[in-house]
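Let us work through a complete example step by step.
Step 1: write down the sequence.
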Amino acid sequence: MEKQPSTLIMDVKLQKDALARPIKFTPPLYKQRYQFIIQLVADLGCADCRLLWMLKFCNCIEVLVGLDISEEVMKEKISVLFNFSASRYTLSPLPGDYLQPSERALTVTLHQGSVAHKDPCMLGFDMVTCIELIEHLEAKELEKFPEVVFGFMSPAMIIISTPNSEFNPLLSVTLFRHPDHKFEWNRAQFQNWALDTAAHYGYRVEFTGLGVPPPGKDVGFCTQIGVFVRNDLKNREPDKFEKCREHAYKTVFKAVYPSLKDEKYLQNAVVGEVFRTAQLIARRILDCKISNPVEIEPSLQPQHCFLKYLEHFPLAEKDNRSMEPFINGSTVSIPLEKIFSFPKVHHLCGTFETLTKLITGKVTLSKDGTAVLIDVEYENEEN
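Step 2: predict the structure and record it as tokens.
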């Protein structure tokens, strides 16, 4: 990740009379953590996978990987995520993804494994997020965690969030917020650990958080966050792969989304767009002929009212008569050059040669292959 946001915007609202009532955050704190990540991506401790579901809609992301120690928890969550009657969340492609493939490629993978182990499948990522993860680690795992994430994976950015123990009394928490937590740090403990880790592995770190305390309470954010950025942001070749070939993680789910980078889906999109464009042009020409009947040679019939319509398309070369569509009997002949001049077709294909290659055999063309032919006989019969 070469760029990072210049500002972090957090909107946290506390209920009135926070000192007299249990503190509640709107939206809930877990949703704020997810939104924080999106506004700033391998996800360690992916658990319920909803962060991955949210990130899959970010057009800048092409690879999403989730890692969690518990395969059972992931399978349980996946079964809910993929049950359409129970949830609107899914990591699998939907029918609409195949009807309108994205221009970007997207692969979503879930692994079962520990953040204390190295696996080459976790190399080459721009960002790693550890959302409410480190407090679940045993002492030995926490000791290995920096070497695995900062030293081995070494992404451009790492985001770590963890509970702030100083906030716990306001939540009526006497020990830890979750029975599986092995520890919870105060602000000084987290910042000392983060600064030492960043300095050792060539990162810089900035601190922020989510969940502001009531007025007059100097306890810091409810969730404290460290945003680590690698000092050297140049792309790094994953040379560590040679030193770490053994796979420590088990793949439990993988989905490859349809995209226009795949020629099969690109061809379908181009053929569909060419056909829609040709039908649109044919309809306009037919409308002009019906409203302005003139008995002249079909091959010389100028489409003056249609040319006015084409003024909306800046790529159209309106002065080039070789690009003008014409009616010949019950067939409208639309030059490929005219269709290629339409912005969406031009954007999809890039070159005229690509257009020709993708539609040959899929669309009815003239004998010389330079024009799309649309039969409008049924239109004439209706009118």
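Step 3: interpret the result. The two ends are 59 Å apart (CA to CA).
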